[in-house]
Specification:
This protein is an alpha/beta fold and 186 residues long. It has five helices and six strands; from the N terminus they run E-E-H-E-E-E-H-H-H-H-E.
């Protein structure tokens, strides 16, 4: 198969590369863009470890071809922290011991970000429902649920600053042009 030119924005930076049409978005993010926080678990869309935000919506990057993301905005876990300052959701996960091995954590973090953007004052039942598509083999989930509940008020207090432009909801205005371009095509 012939490789196809792909251009997309990840965490506010433009990435360009070439990939065969059958290459998954998860593999493109990890191998071509060098962003290894997106983890591959089941590669069947079941576990949620590969969850990224695509145009603001959580998606399983193992189920999407890289060519389908052409021209779109993505967010990976690397886009959550502001330099050395953790995102309030990351802080809550740390404070509540909501991780053990950490393999599933990036998917949980991004799922939580999108969920709290749309549900700023969730109940425990709503949190459990929102996280039901992410699997963890280590924690038993209770600390994860507690972390999301603890993060909700902190995220609400942070307001729009808790949601980078590339974590915007689908249909909202695009981020301003500019930013760094990374070209891996050659």
């Amino acid at each position: 198969m012939d490789a196809v030119e792909i251009r997309l924005r990840i965490n506010g930076k433009e990435y360009r590369g070439r990939a065969e049409p059958r290459k998954t978005l998860a593999d493109f993010i990890r191998e071509d863009c060098g962003l290894t926080g997106t983890h591959l678990g089941c590669e069947h869309g079941v576990c949620g470890a590969c969850t990224v935000l695509l145009e603001g919506d959580p998606v399983r990057s193992c189920l999407i071809f890289a060519v389908q993301a052409e021209g779109l905005d993505l967010m990976t876990v690397e886009g959550m922290a502001a330099g050395d300052r953790l995102h309030p959701i990351q802080e809550a996960f740390s404070e509540h011991h909501a991780l053990q091995c950490g393999f599933c954590t990036p998917g949980f973090l991004l799922t939580t970000l999108a969920f709290l953007r749309d549900h700023p004052d969730p109940t425990e039942t709503e949190i459990r429902h929102a996280l039901a598509g992410n699997l963890c083999r280590c924690t038993g989930y209770q600390n994860i649920v507690e972390a999301v509940a603890a993060a909700a008020p902190a995220v609400a207090r942070a307001g729009p600053e808790a949601f980078p432009p590339y974590a915007r909801a689908a249909g909202s205005p695009p981020p301003p042009p500019g930013g760094e371009t990374v070209d891996d095509s050659g």
